[in-house]
Amino acid sequence: MVTTALIGLDWGTSSLRAYRVDAGGGVIERKSARAGIMQIEGGDFEGALEREVGAWLDAAPGVPVLASGMIASRQGWVEAPYVACPAGVGELAGSMLTHVTARGRRIRFVPGLSFLAEDGVPDVIRGEETQILGEVGQDEDARLLVLPGTHSKWAVAAGGRIEGFSTFMTGELFAVLKQHSILGRLMQDDRDDAAAFAQGLSYAGGAGSGLLKRLFSARTLGLFDRLPASGIASYLSGLLIGTEIEEALAWTRGRRTVGEVTVIGALQLAERYRGALEAKGRPARRAADDIVARGLFRIAHAGGLLP
Amino acid sequence: MVTTALIGLDWGTSSLRAYRVDAGGGVIERKSARAGIMQIEGGDFEGALEREVGAWLDAAPGVPVLASGMIASRQGWVEAPYVACPAGVGELAGSMLTHVTARGRRIRFVPGLSFLAEDGVPDVIRGEETQILGEVGQDEDARLLVLPGTHSKWAVAAGGRIEGFSTFMTGELFAVLKQHSILGRLMQDDRDDAAAFAQGLSYAGGAGSGLLKRLFSARTLGLFDRLPASGIASYLSGLLIGTEIEEALAWTRGRRTVGEVTVIGALQLAERYRGALEAKGRPARRAADDIVARGLFRIAHAGGLLP
């Protein structure tokens, strides 16, 4: 049996992903549970930890345990203050917060990052920084990465450090419009409609107006029989994702980045973004799974926790 | 007693406003009821009509009755097809739909307008066209008007005709974000916070990114103690209204308009828009109340219904 060198936890709002990692950084075993911080009753994080990975911890006493994500936020187990960008694995390792559980387990919490953008407005990430640092190499030129989701994160990384990032409320906006707006009430028999998605995508961005105006097209195109009710959801998705891409590329203007845009995320959503980026003229590729385990391994290594 | 020359109805989704109008177009009497088409049980529009203005109708038999607004939509009493822009009172009068009620009342329904924008996407208004045509004169140069609300409408009118318009989902977006998003959950003890409104307004628009990114500032500014929880709602309102103004002005670029922007709406919201426009460098003024009655009068006149 391969020896465990590190137990890594990617512990977010809606799920816990856990990894047993070997001395070379390879994943020996992984598990995923719907044990995100919002699903844990009464804040019993220790109970959840024992339930999900207690056996791993028992089998590998003394092995470092690192946790990244919202578990280290005000709503989580401990609050690790944000570290300012630019930052790499060294800064994150140097600012980890250690907590010893009632059972005597020592858990190290990776902090999130803050970034004060050129426009003077702050932004934050928590969990995505570890994924990004599992993906980018130490000696790389500046790259652009995106982590799509409820709150999509775009980041520029160079030389193994995250230089800046930006958050877009795309997924959440889609959800509230679908569930609670007139656009949602017009949707019927939703299906994955590639043509409607492309139609929304191509209407996003460009000069002449913006999203607040364009949203209403999801109503009027149906009124004039140019969009089926079953395609409104796909159309809205395309319009929002297209707007996000246009805004993100506007945000990166002036930052030189090379090569493809890297999309980090679950297969279906990542593929949707990859296709949308390609349609907007930006080559893209999807990152490997489990890069968060590699990120945690690198942070542990930078912190001198590995042999 | 002044003789009634016209009974005008501005009958929308959430309210019915009714006017007794004299032969000179002046309002003799007005009433307002929460009898919008969404509040009328079982589609009993005739019952609502009799309840709200039956006495007026009895007292002025044979007087023309005109109704504008969502009452003439698919969800309303009769569906009057949209008339294409550019259009003025003549086109609207020529496309009215007449309906005789069970009691023998003759009601004329004013159609809404459609507009195929330069970007090829259609837009519609229903009710606002009558307000606008009550406000603008026949011999005027091109003017810019805004009707703020759930779905804000911006229009360009010249020579007494509406040349084009554009819809912005500002009010609805504010409502769904406040009620259903993480931004709403962060709001506490909302108060009307002028400084927070101005802060949101000034962050709206301009180069470098867009609304999807800027929305998240309503979360992060609070996280860094630069916005009180009680001011998040005002901040979000400023950010959305500012974005609407920037998008609308981008939309009108290339259309020459003269003078102040005219804001049509209830006092408080109209004043908020007027102030926001002035802050963005566009002088603005609020239109008089009851312009919808004047619009209905002009349409009736154009239709040869008045002596």
Write down the overall geometry of chain A.
Answer: globular
Percentage of β-strand residues of chain A: 15-25%
Oligomer: homodimer
Largest sheet of chain A: 6 strands, mixed
Average pLDDT of chain A: 95
Structural category of chain A:
alpha/beta
Placed side by side, the strands forming the largest sheet of chain A appear as 3-2-1-4-8-7
What descriptive keywords fit this protein?
alpha/beta, globular, 307 residues, homodimer, 15 strands, 6-stranded mixed β-sheet, 11 helices
Quick recap:
Two copies of one chain form a homodimer. With 307 residues, chain A is α/β, with parallel strands linked by helices. Chain A contains eleven helices and 15 strands.
Please give a structural write-up.
The structure is a homodimer of 307-residue chains. Chain A has helices at residues 45-59, 89-94, 128-135, 170-180, 182-186, 194-203, 211-214, 217-223, 232-252, 267-279, 291-302, and strands at residues 6-11, 16-21, 27-33, 65-68, 83-84, 87-88, 97-100, 106-109, 113-116, 122-125, 143-147, 152-158, 161-168, 261-263, 284-286. Chain A has a 6-stranded mixed β-sheet, with helices on both faces. In chain A, strands 6-13-12-11-14-15 form a 6-stranded mixed β-sheet, sandwiched between helices. A 3-stranded mixed β-sheet of chain A has the order 5-9-10, with no helix packed on it. With 307 residues, chain A is an alpha/beta fold. Helix content of chain A is 36%, strand content 22%. Chains A and B meet through β10, β13, α4, α7 and α8 of A and β10, β13, α4, α7 and α8 of B.
